[in-house]
Automatic annotation (TrEMBL):
Alphabetical UniProt keywords: Signal
Entries under InterPro entries matching the protein: Adhesion/Biosynth-related (IPR050904), FAS1_dom_sf (IPR036378), FAS1_domain (IPR000782)
Organism for this UniProt entry: Pontibacter flavimaris
Domain of life, source organism: Bacteria
Signal sequence, start to end: 1-18
Short name of one Pfam family: Fasciclin
All copies of domain FAS1, residue ranges: 51-182
KW Membrane (keyword) present: no
Lineage: Bacteria, Pseudomonadati, Bacteroidota, Cytophagia, Cytophagales
GO cellular component terms attached to this protein's record: extracellular space
Full protein name: Fasciclin
Length: 185
């Protein structure tokens, strides 16, 4: 009986340690998964049922590939997938092509990231403003601290002279598609 008791104690202790180790490994795996999801930010949330946000709408547009590339390069994807609300003036690929040759490629370089962010933030207003709410001469404060001026004439709406050619509601705001890139002063 004396030999069985210490052996039973050793077996029980070993089983308890193994169970703790297994639980520890399981907790570690859960923590790693949670950290990976947190590192992705709001853009890492998988939701195929809700209305698309401004980034998802732009990413699904064949006319906004340059804008989406710029948003990714500037590190603004998570910001623009948050709840907002945002009014985004979204230049088309053709709008970017109107810039002097090499401008877009230059802005996409790592050393120009702050300039790119400044330009992109000049295209974003915090709040939802539908096209029918704009007034001629209305001034809007943009995310980068600059201001844009709205124009309304004969049913056409412009922002700093760029035509709003379409408006798309999203889950976290509205996108106004524009035909020129807005450049801060």
């Amino acid at each position: 009986m004396k030999r069985i008791l210490p052996m039973a104690f050793m077996i029980a202790t070993g089983a308890a340690l193994a169970a703790c180790n297994s639980t520890e490994e399981q907790t570690t795996a859960q923590e790693v998964q949670q950290e990976a999801t947190a590192a992705a930010g709001q853009s890492g949330v998988q939701d195929d049922e809700s209305q698309k946000n401004v980034v998802q709408v732009a990413a699904s547009s064949p006319d906004h590939t340059t804008l989406v590339t710029a948003v990714k390069t500037a590190g603004l994807v998570d910001v623009l997938t948050n709840a907002g609300p945002f009014t985004v003036f979204a230049p088309t690929d053709e709008a970017f092509e109107q810039l002097p040759a090499g401008t877009v490629d230059g802005l996409l370089k790592p050393e120009k990231r702050s300039d790119l962010r400044n330009i992109l933030q000049y295209h974003v207003y915090v709040g939802v403003l539908n096209a029918d709410r704009f007034e001629d001469g209305q001034s809007l404060g943009q995310v980068n601290g600059g201001r844009v001026t709205m124009g309304v004439k004969d049913g056409k709406v412009t922002v700093n002279g760029a035509n709003i050619v379409a408006s798309i509601p999203t889950s976290n705001g509205v996108i106004h598609v524009i035909d020129k890139v807005l450049l801060p002063q």
